[in-house]
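We store chain and fold; thus.
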Amino acid sequence: MTQKIEAVVFDVGRVIVQWNLRHLFEKLIHDAAELDWFLANVVTEAWHFEHDAGRPLAEMVPERKALFPKHAHLIDVYATRFNETIPGRVPGTADLIERLVSHDVPLYAITNFGAEFWAMFRPTEPLFDHFQEIVVSGEEKLAKPDPAIFHLAEARFGHRAQSMLFIDDNAANIAAAEALGWQVHHFTEAGALERDLKGRGLIPA
């Protein structure tokens, strides 16, 4: 029998808010082929993930500019205009968060997010005021799907893994959490999450 859920733990990017490096750079690079090349080779998601995992921008940006000097100005933009990679909320998730809050479900988050970018973005999104605690990978220098970040979150949130529902869009993160005993929901869109939350009795059917 599945253990009763005591808390819901959200991922942030692509679950609560939209995120794509393209949202920023399509404003600055107007040739589609050049934009694709830039995002595949210069400011890539893999390189960005180094900041999520704890590397400071003061190391990353000069290093990248030395590799791609012709794109130095665009690499600077990555560091200063990161919030423009987040164009808005994922449709429907905010409503589900509000409904969980109205039914007194404790909310937490585990996010792969660079510490400096989190400091820039967090004040712009009032939804996070509903969350009791948020584990940020860049602050902890631990990133999903490393089991260590889930162990840290379990200790910090004060609930056993088996009593928490973890919601993430990334299959590797879901698999890591599930292997550690968390209850999980692989997020694709808010409608499916709503049905799952209703089925688990976390919001009224």
User: Anything to note?
Assistant: Residues 21-85 form one domain.
